[in-house]
Design goal:
It is globular and about 65 Å long. It has a three-stranded mixed sheet with strand order 2-1-3. The model is unreliable at 1-7 and 317-325 (pLDDT under 50). Helix 3 (55-82) packs antiparallel against helix 10 and helix 6 (135-160) packs antiparallel against helix 8 (190-223). The protein has a single domain (8-306), classed as Up-down Bundle (Rhopdopsin 7-helix transmembrane proteins), CATH 1.20.1070.10. It is mainly alpha-helical and 325 residues long. The chain has helices spanning 5-8, 21-48, 55-82, 91-124, 129-132, 135-160, 178-184, 190-223, 228-256, 265-288, 292-306; strands at 11-14, 88-90, 169-171. The protein starts with a helix and ends in a 19-residue tail after the last helix.
């Protein structure tokens, strides 16, 4: 907002709950529980099982942490609002929600690119992998992803704080985000729109092209493998990652690059829900829990915690060549 209007707006109404409140409550609660349980399980396994102490699962644990943050920024407030006759959020709370949501979005774009490069280094240059993806490099890359998201979000949130609104602010949405704020604003929104388009190139398209380039090289290397078993394992791991990447970047692009369209508010809310609520719940199911190494780690962890019989074959020292601990 700008000028005198800035001090007049203290509350923002959320009008995304005109119908289906009980259904939305059950749906979002179930999705949130799946997100928390699935991603918390991945974090726990990566921390407890030495077999998973390698760069791939180190970055995967950061992805799980991001997914938990995504959902926690939006879903608890959505659940509370679905039980109230009047859904609203404070102006400062709206800016804070926008900041943390876009921080997670920017960080995940960068993290998916780093994860693609990790698979490229492991498959295309396996002899140099331990040196390229040393523990210090992994920590620096992860920290850079989080910082990248925070800096990008800070720019958008600063511009959002300077938007002007005419009268009561009503968002036809379930939560606060830049696109619905821009649609509700009056006056000059060009700086914020320009920042979103620039971010779609540098924060969205740039990492996506890195992912595509990495997987084209991976595909060429996998097809050249003489052993069918090696090709199958590489394809299994990379296809799961590609599914996560495609799902995320497609929904992110639809969420942040449709400002000029005439889609209904319902379509906007569905896209945002897929991007911010559904995708974090699917990631552990697609990328991790179907992975044989993660399943074996789960069995070993349960054996250690519960002392189950007949699982000694799964429990053993971590394989050689583990990076970090």
């Amino acid at each position: 907002m700008a000028g005198g209007n800035q001090t007049q707006v203290t509350e923002i109404l959320l009008l995304g709950f005109s119908h289906g409140r009980p259904f939305l409550f059950v749906l979002f609660l179930a999705t949130y529980l799946v997100t928390l349980l699935g991603n918390s399980a991945i974090l726990t396994l990566v921390c407890l099982d030495p077999h998973l102490h390698n760069p791939m699962y180190f970055f995967l644990s950061h992805l799980s942490c991001l997914d938990i943050c995504y959902s926690t920024v939006t879903v608890p407030k959505v659940l509370a609002d679905s039980l109230r006759p009047r859904a609203a959020i404070s102006y400062r709370g709206c800016l804070a929600q926008t900041f943390f949501l876009m921080s997670c979005a920017g960080a995940e774009c960068a993290l998916l690119a780093v994860m693609a490069y990790d698979r490229y280094a492991a498959i295309v240059h396996p002899l140099h992998y331990a040196h390229t993806m040393c523990w210090a490099a992994c920590k620096a890359a992860a920290a850079g992803c989080w910082l990248w998201g925070v800096l990008d979000s800070a720019v958008h949130t600063l511009l959002a704080s300077r938007l002007s609104f005419c009268g009561a602010v009503r968002l036809r949405h379930l939560f606060c985000d830049m696109p619905p704020l821009l649609r509700a604003a009056c006056g000059n929104t060009r700086p914020s729109e320009a920042a979103l388009h620039a971010a779609s190139v540098f924060v969205g398209l740039g990492p996506f092209l890195l992912v595509v380039g990495s997987y084209l090289r991976i595909l060429a290397a996998v097809l050249a493998m003489p052993v069918a078993a090696g090709r199958h394992k590489a394809f299994s791991t990379c296809s799961a990652h590609l599914l996560v990447v495609t799902l995320y970047f497609v929904t992110a692009n639809l969420n942040y690059n449709r400002l000029g369209t005439n889609d209904s508010p319902l379509a906007d809310m569905v896209v945002s829900a897929l991007f911010c609520i559904v995708t974090p719940a699917l990631n552990p199911l697609i990328y991790s829990l179907r992975n044989q190494e993660v399943q074996a780690a789960l069995r070993r962890t349960l054996c250690r915690l519960w002392g189950s019989r007949g699982c000694g074959a799964d429990v053993g020292p971590p394989p050689a060549g583990i990076v970090g601990s």
